[in-house]
Amino acid sequence: MSLALCHENIRVPITALAPCGPLFLAAEGPFLSFFESVHYKLLATARIFKSHVIHGIVVEYRSFSDVAVVVWGGPWIRAFHFDCAAFNTSSAFSVVPVVFSAPVKASDWILDLSLYREKPDGAFNSALVCAAVTAHNALLEVKIGRSGFPKLTLTELTSSSRSILYSAHSVWESFDRILVAAGTAFGEIILWSWERKPTAESCHRVHHVFLGHEGSVFGVQISQELLLEPSKEPRRLLASCSDDRTIRVWDISKLSAGADTEKALDETHDKERTHHTGFSNSCLDPPPTRSHCLAVGWGHLSRVWAVTFLDHEYFQSLGFFILSSGEDATSRIWALVPNPDRPNIDTDIASYTLRLMDTAEYHSGKNIWAATVTSLHPDGFVGIVTGGADGKITERMSLLSSPDRVKKSGRMVEEFSIEDIYSMASPIVKSLSHVLDNAGGCRPSTKADFFRSYAFLNESSFLLTTNSGRIYLETIASDKHVFERQNLSTSVLIDQMDELSGHSVCTGAPGLEAVFVAGSTGSIHIYWKSSLHKLHTLPGKIGSMFATSAFVEPNNNTTALLVTVQGLSHAKLLSIAIGTGQPRVTRTVNVAVSEILTGPIITSLDYIGSVQGETDYILLGFRRGSIAIYKVPRVTAETVYEEVPATLVRIIEQAHGKETVTAIKWQVSSLRPSDLKPTSGHMYSVGRDGCVTDHHIDFAQGSVTLVNRCSLPIGPNLEGLYIGNTHMGVYGFSKTRFVVYDMTNEEEVMGVDTGGSHRSWKYQQQPSTDGGGTIVWTRASTMHIFSQVARSYRAIRPGRHGREIKAVAACTNDESEFTKRLVATGAEDTDIRLFECWEGNFVGCKTLRKHTTGIQHLQWSADGEYLFSSGGCEEFYVWRVRTSGAQGVVGFHVVCESICEPQSEHSDLRIMTFEAFEFYNRKDKWVIAMVFSDSTIRIHSYDPTAAQKWQTLSKGTYFTSCLTQCTFITPIAILTTGTDGHAVLWPLSSSTHRPHQSDPRPPDTLDWKQPNRIHQSTSKTLASHSICIGWTLIVSGGDDSSLSFLVINHTSLSSPVIHAPTILVRAHASAVTACIVLQRVSKTLVVTAGNDQWVRLWDVQIRGIETRTRDEDMLTVKRVCKMKTSVADVSSMCVIENTSEGARVLVCGVGMELIRIEEPHSGPPVPRMVLPAAPQKRELVPYVRPTKKLWP
């Protein structure tokens, strides 16, 4: 029985979103996903169209048991209705009776479809009526029958015009009148209407043509009637966005109301409105009138795709808001406010302005294609869901408040001056007048005072010190909302000290609810249990302090504080007993610091207790990028007071290059309660190089191993990290924003504009939640507070690359340490992403960031422990990949183990492709062939254990044509293809696999042989397959849409023979860009894909192998089947698994799709499917009449 190609999973750009009562609908490609709207659990998926991408969704939610949905994409329209109660996830099985209509094709592409919704007190008709606007400005009426199977009927209300539209929006003013706004490719916005006449033919009129945009208009929307300030008269507005990056708001109230002065849409008016090209020239084009343009907004960094009015009646008391999304992968909220710069109505200045209120950057790469509002709250909170080109769906809650309350950060940030803090604390200051008298008799002036430092006492309270020596306790009041809270409820003056005047340092231990304060005299104070105590005195001015956040010895309630004193060559580690009495120092440890080895400045600390009996360890980070490990005696309950030295154990040089190590966290390897003295664990650290490192330390063996190092999209100023039960979080500054980043899920948790890192600040995460926290900072001599008790957004579905995927590779070793299939993808966004493909689902993700150009090629080692990657600028990296184990919180342990240094003068060549061939009987040693964009080929050997890891073995030069593909035929023969359509062999020297030498000899010169013409132009993809011992099949896909098959006899390693190629012309309708070969039992199968978005399966039969003779008809190629893929610009594919039950192939390009190769099911089509509760992904099978074809 013949094989079949079946869709299994997909990750392509999200193109449409829509709430649907208890459900939420999301479109990607031709598929529609059903989520429940509370926790966004995926319930089912359905293929709506055969190949066209879904562009829009309209929902008619009449009741819980009567929901109708209309979907359109390209020229196709389809409708279905269902009962929401059928999506019952509580039981083990659920039957989903979704009744689909047959898809109907319109005469042109549909840009907008609006549903006529009757008044609440009106009776519902049995049929739904929709209005559709096409790409040539025609209006269609779509009627959808509701009884039985939905039946769609299209009626043309107006004919097409010469306008080429990029966007449109229609509004039903009544059942007999439709108002349409259409944005053209030349910067025009055409406002016109259609009206149904009961006694005559219907008519359509153009009301106005708006000019002003300097580029194509990509999005328009008409608002409902609004009451704008100051007139409070009902006005209808039009919002538009364009290629020129602007958002404009137009007043169309009078234009859409009157019909006496309207012109008919005839030949004369066509000429009047099409003279404008969109690229204005002041000498030729008349100046656009300001009479209808109310406001212009700038904010997006590139093209703006869509605008939406947030004009629900809930928000009209707060203002008028617009949601926009664009190519820069951001969504922004704007407020329409009166322009204070407009002196009078006769001026040319716009009467309103668009003020940017909020910016969300939760997608990677480019383009947000879909945005919708999911929830509305009368107090101003709105839920916004966006879908991007990265396949990610996010939901965030935004507060639509008065524009005057929103600062430059775009969030609700409270500001307090030093005078505000003094005023809040003044009632208590009067009762503490003796404090001021002891400090100097008179109260110092606040004009010369400013904020000095901050330290958190717990998650809702913090201490601050001022330049005059005052210490205040500030308490943050919790708001009734769980999204943002920032109001100060109390401010208490604790004390004022002369020693803190001009210099003060404070650090907190929130886990102990204690804060340490020190000044210029060396005295150290502790604020604990609502009182300030003097703790210890050191000789000199205190430089910095670092406190542990928990007890280092829980049995005797002892914590540790590291103090540096200016002028001393060693630091002081204080052991502090915090019990029922007053805190006291029980021990002082002298920590010697080497200015030569580590540098004198300590920047971070972590304490490791209960290791190897009576020994503790401390980890110190330094400004020069090194980390030092010290051994200290363990504190016991019998310790009274002693002063002992610390012993330097090891220095990890340049753990973060030459940048500051800002934070260190220790996590033990064992989770067994019986293991009270763990001897190994992981040391996580962050630095201002923008990287997070993970060193595995075994104190028993005395070993330190770097197991993970990754760069983050935030930074480079990473300032801290925290570890939860299952998540690791990192926080720091990215340009002017403070960002909290979840490394486990690879998503931003919190972000606020603080102005940059060069200021006093302090952050405290929320331990009770999985995201958010409070940050307090100084900016422009004022204290700012931003607090968030939940994540800033929720990822409904995680995304992948934000740009086109250019390379994919799967780990094919079933005996590797990975229990699931590990896949690596590389894209134009310069990132490499690792994830596991398990039972048809994409699980987990880790991003490798080191390349500075787009990825060209990826390859796994045979054992799956190494990944090779190449790109432009001669970038070639070797990654060591390991599992993180039971204790890991990062997913995979990945380290960039080595870099092949460029050899050209300017390093501007692109490594088109490469292949790594492992040495015989020598693990982790490879011969790597690379082809470059300057027609050269280089052979390198890589040995990670040798003194010189990289050696160049051979070099060769082809014609002026660029080499594009290469593969090893034998250990000493390479085949390459290029842009001239030829395949050639490059014999290698027999000494290629020799061991590395300390004094390497000059590289050999390579010469090519046996040219074979296989394409008319470029070979875009190449795959090899071993037929049997000594014989290899080569398959090449070309730019000429052909497939070429080569059989190579290499029974003689020194002289391989290429048989005459078998060329299959017109294998695809466009360039063949990806192919793979897989063996299934006795069949040799080839899977190909191209720019025509078809995936084809070929059966290749090989004859003549037994006789070893040259045979012109050695190959017979037959196409087995084909299927349409939703992945545009297919660039690569790989085999995920190949078992007796079937095979899975991953196709990559703009997104990725998992395709299953299996035996087709026999029997009639099943009208419905029983869907299990787990796994979550479930396939909807539509009801269709047997007499009608599902796809036209």
TrEMBL record:
What's the name of the protein?
WD40 repeat-like protein
Database matches in PANTHER family? WD REPEAT PROTEIN (PTHR14344), WD REPEAT-CONTAINING PROTEIN 6 (PTHR14344:SF3)
Task: Write out the GO biological process terms.
Answer: tRNA methylation
| Domain of life of the native organism | Eukaryota
Instruction: Specify residue ranges for compositional bias: Basic and acidic residues.
Output: 996-1007
Q: For the region Disordered, what residue ranges are annotated?
A: 990-1011
Q: Does the keyword tRNA processing apply?
A: yes
Lineage of the organism: Eukaryota, Fungi, Dikarya, Ascomycota, Pezizomycotina
Q: Which family does it belong to?
A: Belongs to the WD repeat WDR6 family.
Q: Supply the alphabetized keyword list.
A: Cytoplasm, Repeat, tRNA processing, WD repeat
Q: Where in the cell is it found?
A: Cytoplasm
Asked whether the keyword Repeat is assigned, the reply is yes
Q: To which species is this protein native?
A: Polyplosphaeria fusca
Pfam families the record matches: WD40
GO CC annotation terms, alphabetical: cytoplasm
Where this protein primarily resides, as one coarse class? cytoplasm
Q: Kindly give the InterPro entries that the UniProt entry links to this protein.
A: tRNA_Anticodon_Mtase-Reg, WD40/YVTN_repeat-like_dom_sf, WD40_repeat_CS, WD40_repeat_dom_sf, WD40_rpt
Ranges: WD repeats: 210-253, 848-889, 1065-1101
